[in-house]
């Protein structure tokens, strides 16, 4: 009897041999993840390297200083308006190998001198392609004159299903905040995204919208996603390898968190500066706590910002559950967006959304959008800031005027109809529900 008892005890102890190496690897992954994100505040590049690796076009902004909790709460509680002035947007446009030309096309379609733009071509792209993208930005006369487009010097490996995409997004946001650039909302796009309205339409429609709102499609995680995503533990090799590989799954499972609820939704967002200040500085440590949880979470881009905003009492009422995109899902099982084509054109317009995804490279639908929705005759979608002549096919945006002058068109009317619905009391009652 005693031998059987000892044998059983040894087997129990043997079954637990995985605990120490598992938690050690978990701690290392979280440490690498946090170090990667917040390393932007102490740049590893020397001054000499920056001259060659980064094209940094900057406008002088108002010096802000560090935020304290009372300042953040005051900003959220205010109406967020700025004397009827059009807002300023900050875009992150990201891509991978073979995407540099698509990124430039998307950039030109959403370009406006009021805005700020950061381009990130991940480490999977060859050095020649990253150099070509940098040179394209550097040699553009409008970009050089306005100084509002930059290419991220540090190319990161990005795995969509892993936390490296969130790490890259937070790094871009930190750069925008660190340099005190003037902007009100942050929008992330990929090379396969494209606008359905001009920037004049977009800026005009959002001129009367509170700058504290966050457009982020979200819902509380449930069903199969609750078990598959929240209890599984993954390792993103992009945190410590130099070549992109798929995420690795561990055999262990974890319990649900009890200090916050988990939310999920679209990875494509339009987030306020106030909320992103909170995510970066984390005065109550909640954003960092949730970030550590999502360091080993499957599809973390579809959950991190959503869980933070719905867990922070001062921000949950600012969450508008829409990603401002037209997306056509595969059917069944409605888990992956299908490629859009000319056949989807009418449905795109009916959606009233300002953006759509995803498009194949150089698809005819993009040309149709340029001509019929954006009025494109040159490199940029024209707006009130374009005061050059358009005779004989000339580019009117080659001569820059006052960037506060807007010429909204039918796209502004469509977008205003969407915003009226999203900002209605009935729709807002669904926030973080």
From TrEMBL:
Membrane topology label: Single-pass type II membrane protein
GO cellular component: membrane
InterPro entries, sorted: GLCAT14A/B/C, Glyco_trans_14
Protein's cellular compartments: Membrane
Keywords from the named record: Glycoprotein, Glycosyltransferase, Membrane, Transferase, Transmembrane, Transmembrane helix
Molecular function GO labels: glucuronosyltransferase activity
Transmembrane segments: 20-41
Protein name: Uncharacterized protein
């Amino acid at each position: 009897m005693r031998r059987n008892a000892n044998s059983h005890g040894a087997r129990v102890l043997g079954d637990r041999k995985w605990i120490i190496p598992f938690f050690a690897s978990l701690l290392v992954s979280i440490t690498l993840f946090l170090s990667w994100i917040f390393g932007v505040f102490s740049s590893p590049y020397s001054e000499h390297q920056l001259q060659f690796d980064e094209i940094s076009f900057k406008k002088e902004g108002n010096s802000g200083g560090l935020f304290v909790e009372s300042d953040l709460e005051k900003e959220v509680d205010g109406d967020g308006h700025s004397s009827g002035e059009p807002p300023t947007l900050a875009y992150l446009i990201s891509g991978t190998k073979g995407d540099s030309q698509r990124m430039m096309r998307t950039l030109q379609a959403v370009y406006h001198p009021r805005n700020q733009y950061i381009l990130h071509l991940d480490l999977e792209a060859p050095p020649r392609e990253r150099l070509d993208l940098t040179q394209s930005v550097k040699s553009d006369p409008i970009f050089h004159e306005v100084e509002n487009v930059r290419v991220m010097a540090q190319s990161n490996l990005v795995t969509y299903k892993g936390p490296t995409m969130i790490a890259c997004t937070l790094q871009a946001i930190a750069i925008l905040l660190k340099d005190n650039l003037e902007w009100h909302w942050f929008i992330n796009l990929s090379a396969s995204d494209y606008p359905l309205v001009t920037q004049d339409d977009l800026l005009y429609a959002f001129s009367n919208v509170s700058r504290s709102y966050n457009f982020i499609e979200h819902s509380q995680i449930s069903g199969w996603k609750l078990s598959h995503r929240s209890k599984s533990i993954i390792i993103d090799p992009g945190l410590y390898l130099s070549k992109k590989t798929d995420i690795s799954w561990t055999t262990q499972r974890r319990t649900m968190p009890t200090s916050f609820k988990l939310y999920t939704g679209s990875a494509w967002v339009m987030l306020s500066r106030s909320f992103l200040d909170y995510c970066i500085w984390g005065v109550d440590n909640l954003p960092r706590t949730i970030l550590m949880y999502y360091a080993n979470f499957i599809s973390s881009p579809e959950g991190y910002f959503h869980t933070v905003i719905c867990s922070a009492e001062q921000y949950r009422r600012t969450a508008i559950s829409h990603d401002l995109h037209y997306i056509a899902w595969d059917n069944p099982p409605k888990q992956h967006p299908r490629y859009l084509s000319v056949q989807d054109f009418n449905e795109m317009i009916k959606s009233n959304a300002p953006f759509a995804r995803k498009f194949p490279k150089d698809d005819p639908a993009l040309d149709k959008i340029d001509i019929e929705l954006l009025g494109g005759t040159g490199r940029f979608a024209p707006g009130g800031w374009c005061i050059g002549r358009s005779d004989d096919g000339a580019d009117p945006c080659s001569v820059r005027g006052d960037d506060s002058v807007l010429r909204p068109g039918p796209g502004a009317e469509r977008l205003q109809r969407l915003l009226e619905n999203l900002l209605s009391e009935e729709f807002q009652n669904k926030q973080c529900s």
